[in-house]
Amino acid sequence: MARMKFVCDAERCIECNGCVTACKNENEVPWGVNRRRVVTLNDGVPGEKSISVACMHCSDAPCMAVCPVQCFYRTEEGVVLHDKDVCIGCGYCSYACPFGAPQFPSQGTFGVRGKMDKCTFCAGGPEANGSEAEFEKYGRNRLAEGKLPACAEMCSTKALLAGDGDVVADIFRTRVVQRGKGAEVWGWGTAYGSQQAGTPPAGGVRK
Amino acid sequence: MRRPGLVFAGAALAASCLAACGEKPQTNAQGVKHDAVPWSGTGTQENVGTVFTAPGWKVGDKTAWQQQLKTRAQNGQNEYNKEN
């Protein structure tokens, strides 16, 4: 099986924030924490685009590399998760992440930085699948229910795609071929290590 | 007499070069708690689902789970299947 991946189709995103709402509702994310948010690219410039951003579950995740207590782990399906019982809330992952995914609740007992919270690809955490402890710390475990992340399934224009990398890439490729534009997959190269799609290779146009 | 040594050195060199081609371990090497596999379902009993488990796949069957996610992605996110 390929790895679980997110793709946001900037040609389709209408900045409705449905994904943000779906995520907050499904996982009961606390106030002040947004695991997913919609970002406008080139705001105010003609042709501006919007994309939905969260943890991309990178192939070589920088958060994992910098964590001093090694609270991160990657599942067999390529989902990057973390153990909140190990996290010390230092914030290094926040500085390392190119997508701004790690979030820190500010209403905890121990000051401004609680334990890190981020998108789990709706895969919960290290607690038992579907348990109350897992839900309280990490949110719903939809993958174990045979479902895909709520943000993508809720997306009204199907701009946000989530699932097996092969499948979502194939769906996106079909769209690009049909419409003949909009091949830019924002963040794909950064997260999964290939060249940013739609951009010419370094050193000139490929022949 | 030198041949076995050369062969061994060559093999060691090839092994060390190829080691760089390997994928980094994706497992939980650092010892934090590890998650149960997602195809084991969310029920309190092993390999048993709940009312929230999506129908159409057998809990505990990895292949069925993978196929379920692929089918769900195609049905839910690829409207070209419906239009064309």
Keywords:
heterodimer, A: 207 residues, alpha+beta, Alpha-Beta Plaits, two-stranded antiparallel sheet, two-stranded antiparallel ribbon, 7 helices, 13% strand, B: 84 residues, mainly alpha, 3 helices, 0% strand, elongated, 4Fe4S_Fe-S-bd (chain A), 4 iron, 4 sulfur cluster binding (chain A), iron-sulfur (chain A)
Description:
The complex is a heterodimer of chains A (207) and B (84). With 207 residues, chain A is of the alpha+beta class. Chain A has seven helices and six strands; from the N terminus they run E-H-E-E-H-E-E-H-H-H-E-H-H. Chain A has one domain: 2-Layer Sandwich (Alpha-Beta Plaits), CATH 3.30.70.20. The radius of gyration of chain A is 17 Å and the shape is globular. Chain B has a domain of 48 residues. With 84 residues, chain B is mostly helical. Chain B starts with a helix and ends with a helix. At the A-B interface, strand 6 and helix 6 of A face helix 2 of B. Chain A: This is Formate dehydrogenase iron-sulfur subunit.
What's the rounded overall pLDDT mean of chain B?
80
| Tally of separate domains of chain A | 1
Distance between the termini of chain A: 33 Å
Query: Helix/strand-derived class of chain A?
Result: alpha+beta
Name the shape of chain A in a single word: globular
SSE pattern of chain A, N- to C-terminal? EHEEHEEHHHEHH
Q: How many helices of chain A in DSSP terms?
A: 7
Shape of chain B: elongated
CATH class of chain A: Alpha Beta
Could you estimate the helical fraction of the residues of chain A in percent? 25-40%
Residue runs with pLDDT of under 50 for 5 or more positions of chain A: none
